[in-house]
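Usage

Read records sequentially. Each one opens with the input sequence:
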Amino acid sequence: MLRELNRFTQKHGNIVFLVLLLVLVGPLIFLFGSDGCNQNQRGLFDGDSYGMLGEEVVTSANFQHHMYAEVMQYYLTSGKLVNLNGLMRSNNAISDFKTPVLLRMRALLFAKERGFDQVTDVELGKYKAKQKAFQNDKGEFVADKYRIFINGFFEKQPITVLDFDQMCRENIVIERLKRMLDAETTNVAAVRASILSTGGKAMYTLKEFNRSNYSSLEISDEEIKAVYDEQKETTYLVPEKRIANVVAFQVQETPEGAKPVTDADVKTYYETNSKTYTTEAEVRASHILISYKGASRSQQTRTEAEAKELAEKVLKEVNAKDASFAKLAAQYSDGPSKDNGGDVNFFRRKGQMAEPFANAAFKLKRGEISDLVKSDFGYHIIKKTAEKPASLRPFDDVKSSIRARLVNENNNALFDVKAQEQYTRDLKSKYSQVQATIKYMGITKGDSTDEKELKLDKETAEAIRKEALATKDLEKFAAATQKKYPKMKFTQGKRENIDVTKKDEPEYIKKGFELKTGAVSELIEEPDAFFIVQKVSERSQQPFSEVKQAIVGTLRSQARNKAKAMAKGKAMAFLTALGDKGLSGPEAIAHFEAVANAQKVTTVELPALSQDDKHHVNDLLGGFSASTMYNGIKALTPANPYSTVFSDSKNAYVACLKEIQAPRAPELTDVHARIYGDILEKKSLEAARNAAEKLRKELTEKLEKGLTPKELKTFRKPRDYPNPQYTPDPDKTAQQLSYRTKTGAISIGNIDRGAVLVYMEGRELQDEKTLNESFDRQAKDLTADSNQMQFFRYYQGERGIMLLADHPFIKSLETSYPFTVAPGLEDMFADKQQP
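and closes with the structure output:
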């Protein structure tokens, strides 16, 4: 059967392709003839018969109908318009459309003979509803747009809504046929793979080998020195750094009429809020964390007792003479600070560190090492390295931030006032229109085409509407009605403060807008459902509270754009004052300072910046991005030390290059801990993966001998993580390995922190009945008559592999329905050569 199908596809590949994609017809090349046709010449669609398609007569009207349908479907799928008037006058129109029109007619005849050419009103409604040409901005079907489309698209070519509906029904049948053919030609191997992944659940266990369990490795100073000598000019090279002086011109969103903040205002605020500017005492510490299974954020497998024993051992090493705390932290610590020698920087007593950790660190003297300190994270060994006492920050350090705060508060208050004024001015023109809040409930129509059942659906919907007349809240009524009629499908919703004059809304919403407040509508029928609508409230203008944020946003944007232009203008004036004097070195810097002093602008020396710096500098110029600043100065040279104007959201800048620090190899002491950590990571990772591979070989040998290795008891079941995005690497990799691991075998896979072994116990296959039910559900959307067409019949094979059962395939449509041209029309249907 498969060989016959292959021969059929090779012989009739183009025809099958056209049928499969008939719904998505690609751009057609039309050759439009001259408008000056001979008036005595026979018209394109004159006469009764064009010929025979099988045993069916092809009339001119029938051909024209399907030609229109092709053009319409081409527009709906591509959005490109076709000049129907010109097309109808083209001498080549019939020959150009011959192939797609005849294939369309053959497909419909095929469907009719096999009894799946019937389309319900519900299916038609859904088809029309998904066409963008008939939708509003919210993707909802609008009947008026449907009728307007027909009248506009087929202008001067009369066609009724019923005719157009028939074209849509035919398109649905062709889509149905396409899905059948897709199912028929499904690759058997792909079907098998799909069934295996969905029809049988993999049963496996896994064992993780984490490099953190192999970190007790000796790394000598000689190894570190060797890596340093090899990579000091590459991996550990200190990049070029630049130091520059910069002047900044602030972008301030200041509304017109804002009062300036005086020095006295700033001083008064500082004295009144002195507690705000009193810094708490801080200490700086380094630590070694020994974690265990069950501790917060721990990935360790050791027990708490084992962790405590290891921590006591490390504490002895830390207290030994000449011990390096940073080196031991890099070797033993389970905390993220291990790569920094255990340093956690400065912190306050409350709110930053675990309470037992902070309390112990604050009690230590500088340089002192604690005993073991237990927290939720594990056991800590803490070394206090520095401290800062509590103090009132100097006024000069905070006056700029206080000024910015007061300016911002004043601006916010003034923006609110101006927004209210703007609202009052625009009240009539922008904010005075009738708006209504509408609640609705929809009663979905059934799938039946039987007139009696359709009438019964409408009567039921009308009965529900009459019950709704007494309700004050349609939303609550809809919820109660759903319980009363559990077999019916309901939708419900609420549209607040809508203006139907400004937006295209569904017909039932428009009718709800016309109701009196509190009233319930008559039954409103749409293609897919009956709707009941209630008008909840109505208002004649939008309140200020609703539009305030938008108005303030507009005012701020206007002020910001104006401020940016002013800041850039000041920066350009500064740049002009610098001039082009050809200065360099100290003379260029002195001239830069002199111009800044003359314009009463403060110069700031930037920290040394490199292209690798991505951090944010908070304590200068109101805060700036290091990478943005570096990009502004990276092109400067000693011969051309002045930058052009560059800016961010806060300031416009001009910079003067002060120094370029060439790339250099670091001192060994500066990168010793980093190199130690890199070597340890590489060695521990290699050790973990080697251990995994060794165990895999041992277990495989035992399994091949028919033994049940006791080591399999150390494997664990996979954990259930509903969201794949948050599945940890060991479980994610193990799941992937399970897809390609044979039953009774061991496989290995690398993960970022080591490796994972998977032992495949087997597959939990479904029984034949369950499988058939599953595939029947899948086939439901593929064919209207799955029993007749015998699509998707599967059975369970001897090895538990589900195979695609034998089924009939569609024979050549061209052979089944040959087209015979009527005498005298051969030239009209002949293929035309393009000029």
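Summary fields computed downstream for this record:
- The chain has 27 helices and 24 strands.
- The longest strand covers residues 754-765.
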